[in-house]
Amino acid sequence: MRLLACVLLVAALASPAAAETVSPPCAGEEFRQLDFWVGTWDLAWEGGKGENIITRDFNDCVIRENFSDLSPVTEGSLPFRGTSVSTYHVPSSLWRQTWVDNQGGYYALTGGPQPDGTFVLTDSRLHDAAPHARMVFDNITPDSLTWRWQGSEDGVTWQDRWVITYTRRAAP
């Protein structure tokens, strides 16, 4: 009886249905919308410079950011460091990003590609009195982009608070 069970098990495992491959969980085109950001980047902004290393992780379902401010620091301060994880959220058809940093900063953002070619992620406000904030990726090319951290009093009119020019680092 055991021999028959083993033969049936082997036959079932060898069947075409068992040989089918399963699509990776994040294989859809929407999961590639932020791929322009993946890579190692040299950063420049007014009065500063840094690097940002963006990778894909967790079966290509998550984009991980590791930001480092490489500007000279003043005595008694720490260099600014931060990290984020981003993923496409299928039920809402939006990208979601969580950012944390060594200054106690935390942001939960949602958004995605816009008709004008930008990619916008807007901060989730915890209460009505909280400021409006968002990040905008624009001027996107294979080797460069502009990142803007923007604020707004009314959620309609936006002002740049921090603008970073990204230049893709050439492979060694």
Give a description of the structure.
The protein is mainly beta and about 170 residues long. It has one domain: Lipocalin (Beta Barrel). It is about 10% helix and about 45% strand. It has a 10-stranded antiparallel barrel with strand order 1-2-3-4-5-6-7-8-9-10. The longest helix is centred in the N-terminal third of the chain and has 12 residues. The termini are far apart.
Fill in the keyword field for this structure.
Lipocalin, ten-stranded antiparallel barrel, mainly beta, single chain, 172 residues, disordered N terminus
What secondary-structure arrangement, pairings included, does this model have?
Elements: H1 2-13, H2 16-19, E1 39-45, E2 48-57, E3 62-69, E4 81-89, E5 94-101, E6 106-113, E7 119-123, E8 132-138, E9 144-152, E10 159-168
Antiparallel strand pairs: 1-2, 1-10, 2-3, 3-4, 4-5, 5-6, 6-7, 7-8, 8-9, 9-10
How many separate structural domains? 1
Q: Please give the CATH class.
A: Mainly Beta
What do we call the CATH homologous superfamily? Answer: Calycin beta-barrel core domain
Determine the strand fraction and express it as a percent band. Answer: over 45%
Q: Which oligomerization state do the chains in this entry correspond to?
A: single chain
Record field, number of beta strands: 10
